[in-house]
Design brief:
The chain is of the alpha+beta class. Among the domains are: about 190 residues, no CATH class; about 80 residues. It is about 40% helix and about 15% strand. Strands 1, 3, 7, 8, 9, 10 and 11 form a 7-stranded antiparallel beta sheet that branches. A hairpin with a 5-residue loop joins strand 7 and strand 8. The longest helix is centred in the middle third of the chain and has 25 residues. The relative contact order is 0.11.
Length: about 525
Amino acid sequence: MPQFTSQFIESTPGDPLSDTRPRQVHGALWSKVQPTPVSAPRLVAFSPEVVRLLGLDEAALQSAEWVQVLSGNALWPGMVPYSANYGGHQFGNWAGQLGDGRAIVLGELLAPDGGRYELQLKGAGRTPYSRRADGRAVLRSSIREFLCSEAMHHLGVPTTRALSLVATGDTVIRDMFYDGHPEAEPGAIVCRVAPSFLRFGNFELCTSRGDVALLQKLADYTVTQFFPELGKPSKDTYAAFFGEVARRTAKLIAHWQAVGFVHGVMNTDNMSILGLTIDYGPYGWIDDFDPGWTPNTTDADQRRYRYGNQPAIGMWNVERLGVALMPLLEGDETLIEAGLLEYDRTFETELAARFAAKLGLSSLGDKADFDLVNGCIAWLAEEETDMTLFFRGLSRVVTAPAAPVEFPAVLREAFYGQVPEPHLAKGLQWLTTWWQRTRREGVAPAELARRMDAVNPKYVLRNYLAQEAIDAAHAGDNSKVHALLDVMRRPFDEQPGREAYAARRPDWARSKPGCSALSCSS
Ligand code: AMP
Ligand code: MG
């Protein structure tokens, strides 16, 4: 039987109460809370990689005993479940206390790799932070979180993981479009896994309440547990910690940009202190490359969290963290400036490196190289062009014996509609310049193609693919969830026979709910 620890709650102040009455919780970083049992839990899917990571056994995980635990109906000895207390800036405004309204950490597991991982149930019932909501999650959003966590991991993007997806057997009422038509939907619980689920918002809440002692306890725990290389807690260490979080956040968002992931709700309560992608809600993958696109219908007017704005929002969020850390930085605002500069520099460097690699270049050297990347991005945005197919297709062009003399068929497949001649001509011109530039890499074209295929995924969790799996699961067929999970385990491999999963978004999915835009209802 696995051994569980409770380092976080043993080393930080908690709520003396353990009832789930909605309330403001002061002077505490967490509240003990028991998951609320569900009626007929069934394991829908699990991630074999996470099972292995945790040193668990696949057969055991599928046993009735484990499914009871993964659904919140039972606990292993040593598990002391709790929900975390945090606040956050939502859509640019301070929202006060939020907290884990439906997430419950069961315990920490020491894994064979020496890491300690928290197991957290999302949708396990009401907590003191549920406010007026039900503490539950629906199957459709749970499928999306389960699949995308694992897809992101296999793409190499830092993320929380998902061990399991359980259908609860209970229904949950949701007004999916917020239009006065609530419906009963199947409920589900994802068991999420990460070294820590701490967010910027945990720090912000302490400072917003003037509770510097609590802030310091949180910072000391975080630094000691997760950033030991920065040294013992001190003003300098907190400053270094802030710089490191800025750096990790910049790297993370550059990575999102490079694979076409749009988080959709980059509120500061959804920003991981470890630089992980966290809280998969109304996220989406860019099909046609439109920097103004957001998957989140709640954000349709402002488009605050659109693809092209993620880098700026990341920086805004880092600034909020800096403000929250001010009491520990002795009010030295130059440290915020330094952190933001760090963010900016890291983001620019990372993004340049990622897009250089996407184009088969070892680095961007001179202004002409930067112009090449910017020219590509500007051209892609002009007509509806599939980002994933375009970049993946480039490796087939790089191996051509000469610069293309007509627009390559493999790249035409990336267009969503008819494209005017001048646009093709411009694209061809860009391709010629790019093809010639690749020859200066001094690397065999086949090797360039291999390198490009290792960074330009063939398979991403397109919104419509996830929705097809959801529709099938609602009809009682989980095979599409399993198939998608399996395809997304090797996003850079060709996977003969599975080309359908790499196809452009079909026309029927252009404006179908779940395929193009999603509400926050989950
Ligand atoms: P999100 O934007 O989904 O990350 O959620 C924002 C806040 O709302 C967090 O504090 C969540 O815990 C809470 N929340 C969202 N959905 C529910 C729910 N069904 N029951 C309780 N709390 C919820
Ligand atoms: Mg959240």
